[in-house]
Amino acid sequence: MAEQSSGSGRIRSRGKRRKRPSRGRRAMTIAAWSTAGIALIGGSGLGYVYFKLNGNIEGVDINAALGTDRPDDVDNGSMDILVLGSDSRSGANSEYGEDEGGARSDTAMIVHVYEGHKKASVVSVPRDTLVERPQCKDSKGTSVPGQRRAMFNTAYESGGPACAVKTVEKMSGIRMDHYIEVDFTGFKKLIDELGGVEITTTKRIDDSKSHLDLPPGTHQLNGEQSLGLVRTRKSVGDGSDLGRIQLQQAFMKAFIDQVKDVGVFSSPKKLLDLADAGTKAITPDSELDSVKELMSFAKGLSALGAEDVQMVTMPVQYDPRDPNRVVPLEKASRQVWAALAQDKAIPASAIKDSAGDKGSAGSVVQSRQPAQKGSSPGAKSP
Q1: Which residue segment(s) compose the domain that 236 sits in?
Q2: Domain contains 382
Q3: Residue 180 forms beta bridges with which residues?
Q4: Is 319 helix (H, G, I), strand (E, B) or coil?
Q5: Which of 170, 240, 232 is nearest to 207 (CA)?
């Protein structure tokens, strides 16, 4: 690895370049960066492997918790998935802050896979977005009261996965077909098993909060550095969560681009190690809580590459009453949700005035094939 730690505890990199892969390799896309897909590559058919991986998976029954008070389940060949990154500070995650008895959705992405599963759109929801949180029930069946002007990430903190899903469905009017949660420790281990992720920084990133120090140049990030990058906010853009989302989106593009560039298909041990790390890293919904179900899920997404995925932020503006929060741009947000509900591309007009897709943070990190701003599938039909 190219990194070294300084006495201050920063995660530094010397920017060592790795060998560039052949152009013919494609990534696993959504399944990969939600970690479910990587986990599934390893379902080799060996009984003991199947048993071991199944034992790693603990699902959550979203459907039972939500009941029938949900948007219609539209069967048009598309698929919608809520992917959450949990910021729990308990157990092995305690090094990232004090455990205050709960967890929040540090990262939230609504993934829409279009009919045919050849293109996808990803809508990131800023955790500081003020929304109307609906009444819901937590994992124990206890009623959690609704709240106006609640921060989006408090839905998970207050009522767990089911409340997070219900908040997204209330906000978007779109039924989530699946839910996948990833935690800090699992994310780090998955990246390390993958062999790291290559990114290029166009300027120095030096963030004391995320403990990351990267000079300009190309870096092969290990798990600790990758986690530092997706948690960085103070040293990029305007220092807000919107800048961090842009970093996360750029990192995920890089992750997707090189998932298959690790020799896993020629190494059974690599397959098993990746599958083991991936299944330990995630908490899926109960319809994806077995190796067989995850394999089927990943297979349906395997044709997608990073170039097929449009990443945007839910249209927002800074809250006039509190500049540390954002609020949805109602008309523009309705355009986004309507497009996805109709299995259509997100129109450029929906995000042109959004604070979420402005700023310079997104240009700080590039993958091997930097995405063009405003690039499609938004400009074309999926």
Answers
A1: 3-366
A2: no
A3: 83, 284
A4: strand
A5: 232
